[in-house]
Amino acid sequence: CGNKADSASGASAKETKTEASAQAIKHDGKVLVVYYSASGHTKNVASYIATATKGDVLELQPAQPYSEADLDYNNDTSRVSKEHKDESLRNVPLVKDKVDNWSSYDTVFIGYPIWWGIAAWPVDTFVKANDFTGKTVIPFATSYSSGLGESGKLLQKMAGTGNWLEGKRFPSGASQQDVQDWIKTLGF
Ligand SMILES: Cc1cc2nc3c(=O)[nH]c(=O)nc-3n(C[C@H](O)[C@H](O)[C@H](O)COP(=O)(O)O)c2cc1C
């Protein structure tokens, strides 16, 4: 019985949050979907969001792209494993970390794969390089099984500006319908 009450109040708290999120978004404003994707899953979700919001898209590209060997997290000496072990190696320069007409965007979706429970660090470079003042920022991620965890909050800290919402994690193979359903809850 107690459990039932708990889950009921949990559901209503969630609804309240979604409403608050929807209210924080300027729905007649311009949307940018910026993302990093190592193997295409986050890219798919990003394109579904862009379609559903009529947003513009920017794909973040590391100046030195990650090869398949670089991404091998089972190998202790791979690039990602070394970067994971030593935070000072995670400053990944991007081909482009600035956006044309940045000031024109009201809402910025920021997408990434989850790496070891946090945002894949190529997005850190973008987040640190831009001023989010006056913008609503909505993180999204794909992962094998991990949730969004602290990833959004850590990025928010790095940015230091912007109105960051809770965001959403999708499974790697999320469908367009799943993504559309979420975008609808944000009032688009
Ligand atoms: C270096 C690395 C670390 C990962 N760490 C996690 C993790 O901690 N939890 C998880 O569920 N998936 C993890 N994954 C799986 C990816 O998050 C998942 O495959 C994601 O959808 C990949 O997105 P992408 O195709 O856009 O790169 C990891 C993948 C890589 C390459």
Could you outline the blueprint of secondary structure elements for this entry?
Elements: H1 2-24, E1 30-35, H2 41-53, E2 56-59, H3 79-85, E3 105-115, E4 118-119, H4 122-129, E5 136-143, H5 151-159, E6 163-164, E7 168-171, H6 176-185
Parallel strand pairs: 1-2, 1-3, 3-5, 5-6, 5-7
Antiparallel strand pairs: 3-4
Helix pairs in contact: 2-6, 4-5
Q: Care to describe what's here?
A:
The chain is of the alpha/beta class and 188 residues long. The chain has a single domain (26-185), classed as Flavodoxin domain (Rossmann fold, 3-Layer(aba) Sandwich). It has six helices and seven strands. Strands 1, 2, 3, 4, 5, 6 and 7 form a seven-stranded mixed sheet that branches. It is globular. The protein starts with a helix and ends with a helix. The relative contact order is 0.18. Bound molecules: flavin mononucleotide. The site of flavin mononucleotide has 21 residues, from helix 2, strand 3 and strand 5. Flavin mononucleotide (FMN) binds at residues 37-43, 71, 73, 80, 113-117, 142-146, 172.
